[in-house]
Design goal:
By secondary structure, this protein is α/β, with parallel strands linked by helices. The chain has two domains: about 140 residues, Rossmann fold, CATH 3.40.50.1220; about 80 residues, SIR2/SIRT2 'Small Domain', CATH 3.30.1600.10. The protein is about 30% helix and about 20% strand. It contains eight helices and nine strands. The strands form two sheets. It has a six-stranded parallel sheet, with helices on both faces. Strands 5-4-6 form a three-stranded antiparallel sheet, covered by helices on one side. A hairpin with a 5-residue loop joins strand 4 and strand 5. The longest helix has 17 residues. The two termini are about 15 Å apart. It binds adenosine-5-diphosphoribose. Adenosine-5-diphosphoribose binds next to loops.
Amino acid sequence: MSPFSNQQPKRIVVLTGAGVSAESGLKTFRDNNGLWENHRVEEVATPEAFSANPGLVQRFYNARRSQLVEEAEPNKAHQALAQFESRFEGEFLLVTQNVDDLHERAGSDKLLHMHGELRKVRCSKTHQVYERNEPLFYEELCPCCGLPGKLRPHIVWFGEFPLFMEEIYRALDDCDLFVSIGTSGNVYPAAGFQQVAQQAGAHTVELNLEASNGADRFDEHHHGPATEVVTRFFDQLLELPNG
Ligand code: APR
């Protein structure tokens, strides 16, 4: 039974993955026979791929960026999380593996993009980050170093280090509720967050379309589309008295 059936938790960490944006029309990574927009992940999401075929990698991310800028809108699950954060009186941190900006467009505030952001690019030489809504061409001259071929998507590729890990582990070590939403639990370190939070004494909950890889480790599960299960779960939490 949930320790939060009578009162609200005090410190919450939420992790989201591609499933939270699926109903906004953005494809998940592992629901399409292992192919991601018709590419193998290694072809487009590794530093080696960018060195070997920068044009292909830029085109791939340009297409995803345009879809995000021109078509995708936050859905009810993004909105429920933002609304919860604005009304919750305890500590709240949203960690997302997603590179879309639908959480912030829905109004989420305390948000860390551990795998980078699609609407940003950066210089591989100086690490300067720039906002970007238009396509990026690999011959383009970098504004900070003036060199061609230096600007790259601000995305954490396979084999690279995720961002904000110190801050994330600090919050996990101190939370009393951890909620994982719309992630298959295949990619570390995010796939290990549930165990870190549980060892720190937190109650852990999975909200996903179906049971994920490590589903049996969670204390509580609710399976169904994010727009339904996330909304219901966080609305119910808001109705409880403060802990
Ligand atoms: N509502 C809730 N969950 C959903 C929905 C939905 N409407 N649609 C799909 N899902 C679930 C799937 O069942 C699956 O468990 O979302 C999960 C998506 O899993 P993945 O495609 O593996 O995405 P994710 O876990 O975010 O991937 C992690 O892998 O390649 C990388 O860096 C990339 O951040 C990404 C990381």
